[in-house]
Amino acid sequence: MARKYFGTDGIRGRANGVITPDLALRVGQATGLVFKRNGDHRHRVVIGKDTRLSGYMIETALVAGFTSVGMDVLLLGPIPTPAVAMLTRSMRADLGVMISASHNLYDDNGIKLFAPDGYKLSNDDEEEIERLIDSDLSKQLAKSPALGRAKRIDGVQDRYIEFAKRTLPKNMTFEGLRVVVDCANGAAYSVAPAALWELGAEVFSLGVEPDGFNINRDCGSTAPAALAAKVREMRADIGIALDGDADRVVIVDERGHVVDGDQILAVIAQSWQQDGRLAKPGVVATVMSNFGFERYLKSLGIDVVRTPVGDRYVLEKMREQGFNVGGEPSGHIILSDHTTTGDGFVAALQVMAVVKERGEAVSSVCHRYDPLPQITKNVRYRNGTPHEHARVRDAIAEGEQRLNGHGRLIVRASGTEPVIRVTAEGDDKALVETVVDGIVDALNEVAA
User: What is the side-by-side strand order in the sheet with 108-114?
Assistant: First the structure.
């Protein structure tokens, strides 16, 4: 069924354009009604957010929605998305909510929802919430004595820091490591530097002065140039770049070179295989993961199971088939022994642990394979499905014919923004560029 509100990662859009106070209110009411059906206890929801200016507006509207249907609200303040998932379980909440648009700039925002077990909602739950959002809820509101209460909770950042530290081997210390961490002026601006310092590292911080407008702006995992420059300047051993809600990460080595999610996933998979921690001899990745990554893991006896793009699909496959490591090239890394969603900071800690144990430079530890030439270009559009236009389909067919089995071609609509992503990879870089450009030209013609 086509979704009106939910994408691949909750509800997302322009703040006060798509994500209005009225919508947030109705999301709170609809979601509260769905999850109040589980038991007759006093139901409660935890709400976290990143540092966007619009977070105040959306948080207030959600509180009104949840309390109006009789749910108590515990407000966590700025905190990473994976912390919300963890605290939903830890605090025995009936629901978890994260107000964030992840890696998008400040003028977007979103609402991510977690079930009591800390996992993102099922398709059935999302469909039921969508149905209720557009229905008349007036007769389902709580009576005056049954209205919910709201209060802010202190100490939740410390709880997440301790949780993250406990994902490491006992007595692990990062003493002697110089670390630059870029928190994207987002949700991890306080917890990530503090946790690294407590683990013994010498810490240099970027992106830790949020002002409501600068989240992900020229910083974080989507713009690691500033981090790379700072690593070289400080002669640091490693750089860590999180995104606005800290559910994804990229690494920068001591030379200032960026390490993507595929290489991070390969480091963790091999380390866990050697330690006997891989639940099965395989990992879950998406169709966007480089074929060089797949060839490398297969040489180690580790299979790669691919899914559509989106961390929810990765997690669904992990749960369905019993894998405990999965991720995406963007840096969404899911380690289900520890987390129920992507956790960029926890993934970075696992890489740092390998660096410390091996006593090697990050450039050595994090270069497990040579990726095949892969090119991705984005084409923004206003509406419709331009990638299904006959002109574009012809260009895709022509590109596949030119690759002729010696590469891969993926054309897909983003689940989080109005963009068509065109990706091709193969051993011949010039051919890959030509194929991508041909499809991009066709998309620009029909999307104009």
Answer: 6-7, 10-14, 108-114, 95-99, 44-49, 72-78, 150-152
**What range does the domain containing 237 cover?**
159-365
**Rounded distance between C-alpha atoms, residue 10 and residue 14, angstroms:** 14
Task: For residues 171 and 148, state if they share a domain.
Answer: no
| Domains of the chain: total | 3
pTM: 0.89
Judgement on whether residues 194 and 226 belong to the same structural domain of the protein: yes
Question: What pLDDT band is residue 2 in, cutting at 50, 70 and 90?
Answer: low
Position 389 in a domain: yes
CA distances from 433 to 375, 390, 440 (A): 7, 22, 10
Sheet of 419-426: strand order equals 374-380, 419-426, 407-413
Select which of 68, 100, 102, 330 is catalytic.
Answer: 102
- The Cα 226–Cα 206 span in angstroms is 9
Angle (CA) 346-102-264 rounded to 5° is: 35
Claim to verify: residue 175 and residue 279 sit in the same structural domain: yes
Question: Tell me: the pLDDT tens digits for 325-363?
Answer: 999 999 999 999 999 999 999 999 999 999 999 999 999
Q: Which of 330, 365, 400 is the last residue of a domain?
A: 365
pLDDT per residue as tens digits for the range 128-165: 999 999 999 999 999 999 999 999 999 999 999 999 99
Domain match, 238 and 333 both: yes
Residues 109 and 172 in one domain: no
Verify whether residue 102 is a known catalytic residue.
Answer: yes
